[in-house]
Amino acid sequence: MPLFPLIRLPRPLITRCLIVRGSAVATALVLLLGGCARPETPKKELQVWTLDLAPKFNGYMRAVIADWERQNPGVTVRWTDLPWGSVERKLLASVFARSAPDLVNLNPLFAANLASKGGLLALDPVLPPAAGSAYLPRIWQAGRADGHQIAIPWYLTTRITLANRTLLARSGYRQPPKQWSEVPAYAAAIKRHTGRYALFATVVPDDSAELLESMVQMGVILTDARQRAAFDSPAGRRAFAFWTDLYRRGLLPREVVSQGFRRAIELYQSGELAQVASGAEFLRSIQTNAPTVAAATAPFPPLVGPDGAANVAVMNLAVPKQSKLPREAVSFALFLTNATNQARFAEQAKVLPSANGALRQVGQQLERAKPQGAAEAQVLAARKLSLATLGRARVLVPATPGVKRLQSIVYTQLQRAMLGQLSTDQAVTAAAQEWNRYAEARWPSGPGG
């Protein structure tokens, strides 16, 4: 018969503990109920989701995770990388199942929509004092919604103009326009001298926001403080007329009403487009897919409005409200986005960092770089221009709840004006009425009401 028939030991402890026989019962109980019988305290597990980083950045992420875990004993990071197109569906499913991650990499639009439904944690109570001072002020501010910080900025991209100098020269231009007001005459000259188009801006409702951003650069205020339409204004009517007139005069490709930004890339690489707005790294694709066009391509500053503001796209890190480890999640987010780690990531991914210290490091790296050959020199020049553009860049269309619906409404009515179904004034009025019906249903008393 066993010595202690009423005590059932878990199998791992049985293999570790001393089997005591004889008369030393007290000693045996001390061993069993003391340190030998206590299981180790389980480590906390921090669930982190990112977008489209694996497998290229596996080494980078694992190194950052290992460094943070060394500084935070007792917490392990479980990193999951998701394809861009599946994160919204999977995150919503995890929230519904109450198994949301502790930290997730989101685009600003989805973050804002999720926050408006109460799905994201307001970070202010768990952020260290003055945490935002480490980041570009405008970029940090873009992570606020309804007076709360809901996101920590990570990496950035700015668009520049990549232009075909051969088409420009044949049209009497040494460089593309700097402001939108110069575009109509330029587009007419390109079409007259080359038979090509100057630029492509899609009005497909669920595609690029570039055209909506151009309206903001032209002085259009999209919504007021109550989220009602503010674009039914003289500036809004001028912006609608600007794009409608270009299309009706045949100065925009017919496909802008039916195809997205991908078509702009195809047209540029085939030599049918004088310029395209894109990131610096797009040059590498042109060099691979269209070497002749690439050889004629040069980077130029992006098109802007009277105030000179360019656009910047931001990728964020947010904490779902269901997180069981919000402080650890914020700690890891701040560590991942500190100057040292952001500078390393920016160099590997060829993006721009949101941290002030990292920007200085990237600038120094670009100045020290010695490109090998014309192709690398071209990309380096574009990257330097992207960095310089960041100084006058801001998020032109803030990631507010419903902004994709707003874009869809504006684009749909603008399409109708382009196709001659409405006048531009009628299109503006119709868009404003449709948006206001949506806004009044969603925010009867305004945001937060």
- For this structure, the CATH topology of the largest domain is D-Maltodextrin-Binding Protein, domain 2
Derived from helix and strand composition plus strand pairing, the structural class reads alpha/beta
Rg from Cα: 28 Å
Distance between the termini: 73 Å
What is the level-2 CATH architecture name of the largest domain? 3-Layer(aba) Sandwich
The largest β sheet comes out as: 7 strands, mixed
Number of strands: 12
**CATH class label of the largest domain:** Alpha Beta
What does this structure look like?
The protein is α/β, with parallel strands linked by helices and 449 residues long. It has three domains: 1-40, no CATH class; 44-153 and 314-359, Periplasmic binding protein-like II (D-Maltodextrin-Binding Protein, domain 2); 158-311 and 395-440, Periplasmic binding protein-like II (D-Maltodextrin-Binding Protein, domain 2), CATH 3.40.190. Helices cover 45% and strands 13% of the residues. The protein has 19 helices and twelve strands. The strands form three sheets. Strands 1, 2, 3, 6, 10, 11 and 12 form a seven-stranded mixed sheet that branches. Strands 8-7-9 form a three-stranded antiparallel sheet. A two-stranded antiparallel ribbon has the order 4-5. The protein is globular, with a radius of gyration of 28 Å. The model is unreliable at 1-37 (pLDDT under 50).
Concise account of the structure shown:
The chain has 449 residues and is α/β, with parallel strands linked by helices.
List the helices and strands and how they pair.
Elements: H1 11-16, H2 25-33, E1 44-51, H3 58-71, E2 75-82, H4 87-96, E3 103-106, H5 108-116, H6 137-141, E4 144-145, E5 148-149, E6 152-158, E7 160-164, H7 165-170, H8 183-194, H9 210-217, H10 234-248, H11 261-269, E8 275-278, H12 282-289, H13 291-296, E9 297-300, E10 310-318, H14 326-336, H15 339-349, E11 352-353, H16 356-368, H17 374-389, E12 393-394, H18 403-418, H19 424-442
Helix pairs in contact: 10-18, 10-19, 15-16, 16-17, 18-19
